Please model this.
Amino acid sequence: MIISSQQDKQSPDVCPHNNTISCGNCRLGSICLPLALEDDEVVKLDEIVRRGRPLQKSEHLYRESDEFSSVYAVRAGAIKAYRITGDGQEQVTGFYFPGEIIGMDGIAKGKYACSAKALETSAVCEIPFHRLEELSSLVPSMQRHFFQLMSQEITTDQQLITLLSKNSAEERIASLLISISARNARRKLSETHFRLPMSRTDIGNFLGLTVETVSRVISRFNKQGLISVDSKEVVLLDLDGLKETANIKTEY
Model:
């Protein structure tokens, strides 16, 4: 289920980059799709999904204030969402990984509230919103699932507010690592060994920290045996220790 904003001329039920993948057999289907969808309903969803080339690193999926037309499911890679502040500075507002939905911020006002661009070569599934509305009227479970996705988006925003309210840099960075770990676990990927596609500058921007502070804290976690870091590859060696550092008492 790999697509871009360009209309695909190929068969609607196959991915142009891997003709064995469709909504029906996508490994992320259990996250993106309602579990109760029947086979014929999955085919209907496949028919509205647009497919095209992957996004290259730093290429935009859409820009702030662009007219809202679609929501996107990340299939591979990672997407950064950001806004431009009044003084022209970039403010990172979120990171999106495979199986996660981006673009719902445009529903309310008909324009995207932030920009989204690829942190690395990425593939996304574009679902035109007006077609999704039509399909939801025919397949009630689609509508319920979309409401669940919106609820998850609200929960994520609340977690971000909590994350940024942490007092120390150690708490913020530990909380971010634990959040990524939990999101990986939901995608049935390793919760302790993953790659950070974002730069430390982006991490600092997102968390309200300087890049020097981010580097210093990550080095400290490494020396304390909480994590192991090799370039962008991170292994969480002591999840309980990270949760204690983050002062987290409940699961993400």
